[in-house]
Amino acid sequence: MSFxxxxxxxxxxxEIWAFRxxxxxxxxxxxxxxxxxxxxxxxxxxxxxxVAADASVIVVKVDGVVRGGLEIWPSGNGxxxxxxxxxxxxxxxxxxxxxxxxxxxxxxxxxxxxLEIELDDADPTAKHLIEKFGGLQHGPDGARGKxxx
Length: 149
Hints:
Elements: E1 6-10, H1 16-25, H2 28-35, H3 41-54, E2 56-62, E3 65-74, E4 79-86, H4 95-109, E5 114-118, H5 124-133, E6 136-139, E7 142-148
Parallel strand pairs: 4-5
Antiparallel strand pairs: 1-2, 2-3, 3-4, 5-7, 6-7
Helix pairs in contact: 1-3
């Protein structure tokens, strides 16, 4: 990341509103990629309430504004599911790599062994990113990424 004012880290639950604002800025296609459906504003609000209670959020802020976020959902077996999104105009600039690097660090602090992510076979950028950090596994339900913590 070559931006002058970039911060990556765990978002305090008291600032979940900043993550919500990021998700609300996602366009319809990005919302569909992130949620598996084109979530409307009310769906994003409800999702953020659940995130605040059950998950950890790592964000990347550019000039103090959340431009990307990664959720860590512990699965209880030493691994966690991750999902992330970066706003369109901020993609391909290293923000997602920063999110995943921070997620690996957070997973180590929580003694998790593995971060897993479900991937869309039609998204070569995400597949390349996950290969960079751990590797892809192909199964009957499509591609999945596994990143060792």
